[in-house]
Design a protein that fits this description.
With about 120 residues, the chain is mainly alpha-helical. Helices cover about 70% and strands about 0% of the residues. Helix 1 runs antiparallel to helix 2 and helix 2 packs antiparallel against helix 3.
Length: about 120
């Protein structure tokens, strides 16, 4: 093992790396992914409003508030995440880097599944 040699992270190309042209199809695909995250955020926010104000659930006020706030918080996280992810992916594509996987799709799926389970259990009990 050689000492004093820095290992370059393929997912984070150096800032002084030259920008390369990116095929417009990849740029447009990146933009569609960004818009999909924004739609997901809007849907979660609509779900929060529904749980907090529209659904005639016989739940205690604290449980409705907790589920609604969970959905609204997840919508907020995705709203902040979407443009940051879009910019990061675009920059990595221009510099020829490698993309890393994101945990947010897994977190989103788990949170939506949890809310679904809570709504089903709330209606059955």
């Amino acid at each position: 093992m050689r000492t004093g040699v820095a290992v370059k992270d393929a997912a984070a190309p150096e800032d002084d790396a030259p920008d390369r042209p990116v095929d417009y199809r990849f740029t447009l695909a990146n933009e569609r992914t960004f818009l999909a995250w924004v739609r997901t955020s809007l849907a979660l926010l609509a779900g929060a409003v529904a749980v907090l104000h529209l659904l005639p659930l016989g739940w205690a006020e604290w449980s409705r508030t907790a589920v609604g706030l969970l959905l609204a918080a997840l919508a907020g996280v995705i709203t902040v995440y979407a443009p940051l992810r879009w910019y990061r992916v675009q920059r990595i594509m221009r510099r020829g880097g490698t993309l890393r996987l994101s945990l947010l799709p897994l977190v989103t799926a788990f949170a939506v599944g949890l809310v679904c389970a809570l709504v089903l259990l709330g209606n059955l009990l």
